[in-house]
Amino acid sequence: MTESAREGIDITRILDAPRERVFEAWTTPEHFAAWFGGDAEVPLDRVSMDVRPGGDWSLVMVVPGTEMPFHGVYREVVAPERLVLTMKDASAPAGTDGEIVTATFADRGDRTTELVFRQRGGNLTPEQYAAAEDGWEAFFDALVARLASS
């Protein structure tokens, strides 16, 4: 796919943890705050998660001098297999759901999990999708570290 045709993000990672633990890392505020944002701080008291279809979620990433709020709605919750949620930040166009994030967690049978991540929405330029993909890669590096330490 050429960079100019880019309309989303696709990332696959093999994680050294059972899928129940990976799913929990995505759906429990203290775990999510620990890895979402990579090196940025996500204060636990600024994280809210109502993990059910139609439930809201929100958080604030803090980098020196800047707060970046994110929020959305869970569309699908199939524990421990799949999450679909909307994601918006301050730059999201008004009147849209923002981006749609889908995360599937496949049990590989050897206490490892295949995470398949997809982000779509068409709200970002190809350059913004490239930057967002770099961000998610850093987030998933932090997720790997979190799973190794918990």
Question: Any overview of this molecule?
Answer:
This protein has helices spanning 19-27, 29-35, 126-149; strands spanning 8-15, 48-49, 56-63, 66-78, 82-89, 99-107, 113-120. By secondary structure, the chain is α+β, with helices and mostly antiparallel strands. Strands 1-7-6-5-4-3-2 form a 7-stranded antiparallel β-sheet, with helices on one face. Strand 6 (99-107) and strand 7 (113-120) form a beta hairpin. The mean pLDDT is 93.
Low-pLDDT segments? none
Number of helices: 3
Terminal residue distance: 37 Å
CATH superfamily: START domain
| DSSP strand tally | 7
| Shape, principal axes of CA atoms | globular
Counted up, domains total 1
- Rounded radius of gyration (Å): 15 Å
| Helix/sheet category | alpha+beta
> Percent helix among the residues?
25-40%
Q: Mean pLDDT, nearest integer?
A: 93
Summarize the structure.
This protein has three helices and seven strands. With 150 residues, the protein is of the alpha+beta class. β6 (99-107) and β7 (113-120) form a beta hairpin.
What are its keywords?
150 residues, Alpha-D-Glucose-1,6-Bisphosphate, Chain A, domain 4, seven-stranded antiparallel sheet
What's the structural blueprint in terms of helices and strands?
Elements (H helix, E strand, L loop, with lengths): L7 E8 L3 H9 L1 H7 L12 E2 L6 E8 L2 E13 L3 E8 L9 E9 L5 E8 L5 H24 L1
Antiparallel strand pairs: 1-7, 2-3, 3-4, 4-5, 5-6, 6-7
Helix pairs in contact: 1-2, 2-3
